[in-house]
């Protein structure tokens, strides 16, 4: 997964048990949907390589792997302490990704309202509101699934490019 993230110019911050925290720093101050397509392509590529990963796992006699991908947009703070060489991210988008992640289908991707609002005009993807995260009766944050638009000549295909080998 780190290779996929790197190929999309993202940065892995840390491994959180069975999760990866990563971000795309070049979007700071960006408010056009084209700036966010890379993020969606990265997440969807991660979802699309699941079958390839599991073919390798089967050959190695390992159990199949499933995962969920969640993304959101917003301001984060980057912190580095004197006690660790690693950085950490804090902020609403990080918290929201953790909260909405379980809403994704296995090997699928969801996003929060802020990222959806930034990309919804891009027609290369199919979006669907699938629910919302509610902290209390006063706060409800919409959650959207995202998929690639099917390729015109292949009705069952959602891949738009050949997957890279890692």
Write the layout of secondary structure elements.
Layout: H1 2-7, E1 11-15, E2 20-23, H2 37-48, H3 50-59, E3 69-71, E4 77-80, E5 87-90, H4 92-100, E6 109-112, H5 113-119, E7 125-136, E8 139-148
Parallel strand pairs: 3-6
Antiparallel strand pairs: 1-2, 4-5, 6-8, 7-8
Unreliable residue runs: 158-166
Shape: globular
Instruction: Please provide the count of β strands.
Output: 8
Strand content: 25-35%
How would you concisely characterize the structure shown here?
With 166 residues, the chain is an alpha+beta fold.
Description of the structure:
- 27% of the residues lie in helices and 28% in strands.
- The chain is of the alpha+beta class.
- Strands 3-6-8-7 form a four-stranded mixed β-sheet, with helices on both faces. Strands 1-2 form a two-stranded antiparallel sheet.
- The chain is globular.
- The termini are close together.
- Mean pLDDT is 85; it is low at 158-166.
Give structural attributes.
8 strands; Alpha-Beta Plaits; four-stranded mixed β-sheet; alpha+beta; two-stranded antiparallel ribbon; single chain; 166 residues
